[in-house]
Design goal:
By secondary structure, this protein is mostly helical. The protein has 18 helices and 4 strands.
C-alpha cells in the first residue's frame, strides 16, 4: 500500500486527480516561487529600490532557469523550507552584481505563501468549473424526475411519498451554495504575501508598502492590508470549503448506495464493480468512493484547524501542517466532483420499484395524507389516533399473513363506523408542492 492513495498506481484512479495534483507538485511550487522572485525584482527596480538594471537581469535569468527539486532536498532538510536553498542556487546563475539583489527585502515565507496563492488560482478555476457543471447536471436531473414518485424516508423509515426530483434537488442546492461561498472566499485566499523577516517590511522602510501594492498588481493577486504570516484563516476557510464539497458529494454517494441495495434497487448509477467470488454483484464503487472521500475531508478539516494556532510572528510547526493537509484535500475535492458528475450523468431510477416502495405495508406511506384528510371532519389529534390504530392493526395482520390489506381500507372502515365519507388518495396532489420546490431550487441555483 502506498503512503498516499492519491498517488498510488493502484488507487489514484479512484482517489486522485491528476489535473489538480499537478499544481501541488514540487515543480509547480518551484515555478511559482520563481514567478514571485522575478516579479519582485521587476517591481523593486521600477520603484528604485534596487538598481534599474538588476530587475530585468534577474527576471531574464529566472525565465530560463530550471531548478530540479531533488537538488533542493538536502537544503530543505537543513532549513525546514526550500527557499534558502533555492535562492542560493538562483544567485549562482545570475550574473554579478545583479544576483545580490535577488529576494531583496523578502523572507522565505513570502515566496512560499505567494507561490501557493499563484498555484491556488488555477485550482479554484478547475473546482469552480466542475462544480458549476455538476450543479447544472443535477438541476436538469431534478426537473426531469420532478414527477417521479418515490418513498421519502426519514431516519431510515418510509415516511411519505415524495419525488426523486426533489431528492436530487436536495443534492443540488447546497452545492450551488458552495459556488457562492467559493466566490466569497476567493479574495480572502488569493492574496500576496510580502512582509519581510518579521512581517513589518522593516528592511524596505517607507518603500515597503508601495512595493507590496505594486507586487500584488504585478502578480494579479489581492493586496492585503498587512502581511498575514501567522494569520491563516483564509487557508483554513478554503480547507473547510473543500471538506464541504467532499461531504456534499459524499451525501450523493451515500444516498445512491442505499437506493442501490439489492432489496431496495430503486436507482442505480455507474457501471458497478464485480466481486472475486460472487458473480451476481455490481458493487457501487464510485458511490462508495464519494463517501470515503467525504470522510477523509472531514478528518482533514480538523487538522486544518490546528494550523490556526500560530504563535508570535512565525510558527514553523503550525505552518508546516498546511503542507500536509491542503494538497490532499484539494485533490480529494476534485476527485469527488469528477466522480459525482459521472454518477449523475448515469442516473437510472426504477419507477416500478419506487412505486412499490410507496405501497409497502399496505400503503403506510399515505398515513399522513389520510390523517390530514380526516382532519377536515375532526381535530387532527383524533384523526391521527384513528390512522395510528389502523396502521397498528394492518401491521399486526401482516405479521400473521402475506398481507395485512391496505391501510386506507382500514381507515375507511373506521370512517364508516363514524358516518364519515371514505378517504380519497391523490398521489399527484402529494407531489405537486414538490414540483414547485424543485423549480424554485433550480432557479435559485442559477441566480
Amino acid at each position: 500500500m502506498a503512503v498516499a492513495a492519491f498517488e498510488s498506481p493502484l488507487m489514484a484512479g479512484l482517489y486522485g486527480d491528476a489535473e489538480i495534483a499537478a499544481h501541488f507538485s514540487a515543480e509547480a511550487e518551484i515555478a511559482a516561487m520563481l514567478r514571485f522572485e522575478a516579479a519582485l525584482a521587476r517591481v523593486e527596480a521600477r520603484l528604485g529600490v534596487i538598481p534599474a538594471a538588476a530587475g530585468p537581469a534577474i527576471a531574464q535569468a529566472l525565465a530560463g532557469v530550471e531548478v530540479a527539486a531533488a537538488d533542493l532536498g538536502a537544503a530543505t532538510e537543513a532549513a525546514g523550507i526550500p527557499v534558502p536553498g533555492l535562492v542560493k542556487a538562483l544567485r549562482a546563475r545570475i550574473a554579478p552584481p545583479h544576483g545580490d539583489f535577488l529576494h531583496w527585502g523578502a523572507t522565505s515565507q513570502d515566496a512560499m505563501d505567494t507561490g501557493l496563492a499563484l498555484r491556488l488560482h488555477p485550482v479554484l478555476e478547475i473546482l469552480d468549473t466542475r462544480l458549476a457543471a455538476l450543479v447544472a447536471a443535477l438541476g436538469a436531473a431534478a426537473r426531469r424526475h420532478a414527477g417521479l414518485p418515490m418513498a421519502g424516508r426519514t431516519r431510515s423509515q418510509i415516511a411519505t411519498p415524495t419525488s426523486f426530483g426533489l431528492r436530487i434537488a436536495g443534492w443540488m442546492a447546497p452545492l450551488a451554495r458552495c459556488r457562492d461561498r467559493l466566490g466569497e472566499l476567493r479574495p480572502r485566499l488569493l492574496l500576496l504575501q510580502f512582509g519581510g523577516a518579521s512581517g513589518n517590511l522593516a528592511a524596505l522602510g517607507e518603500r515597503g508598502i508601495p512595493v507590496m501594492e505594486a507586487l500584488a498588481a504585478e502578480l494579479g493577486l489581492g493586496c492585503p492590508a498587512k502581511p498575514w504570516h501567522v494569520e491563516r484563516d483564509g487557508l483554513v476557510e478554503f480547507a473547510n470549503w473543500l471538506a464541504m464539497v467532499s461531504g456534499l458529494t459524499g451525501r450523493i454517494g451515500a444516498d445512491l448506495v442505499l437506493l442501490g441495495r439489492s432489496e431496495i434497487a430503486e436507482a442505480a448509477a455507474g457501471a458497478g464493480g464485480g466481486s472475486s467470488t460472487m458473480p451476481q454483484k455490481a458493487n457501487p464503487v464510485l458511490a462508495e468512493t464519494l463517501v470515503t472521500l467525504a470522510r477523509f475531508g472531514a478528518a482533514q478539516a480538523g487538522l486544518a484547524q490546528q494550523a490556526l494556532l500560530q504563535t508570535e510572528e512565525r510558527d514553523g510547526a503550525a505552518w508546516a501542517v498546511e503542507w500536509l493537509y491542503l494538497p490532499p484535500m484539494a485533490v480529494a475535492a476534485g476527485a469527488s466532483l469528477r466522480h459525482a458528475a459521472a454518477l449523475v450523468a448515469d442516473l437510472r431510477p426504477d419507477p416500478a420499484r419506487m412505486a412499490a416502495a410507496i405501497e409497502l405495508n399496505g400503503g403506510a406511506a399515505y398515513a399522513e395524507a389520510l390523517a390530514f384528510g380526516l382532519a377536515r371532519h375532526m381535530p387532527l389529534k383524533d384523526a391521527q389516533e384513528i390512522v395510528k390504530a389502523a396502521a397498528a392493526a394492518q401491521a399486526a395482520a401482516a405479521a400473521q399473513a402475506a398481507t395485512g390489506g391496505r391501510l386506507i381500507d382500514r381507515v375507511d372502515a373506521a370512517c364508516a363506523a363514524r358516518g364519515l365519507p371514505a378517504q380519497q388518495l391523490d398521489l399527484e396532489s402529494q407531489l405537486a408542492p414538490g414540483r414547485e420546490l424543485v423549480e424554485r431550487a433550480v432557479k435559485a441555483s442559477r441566480a
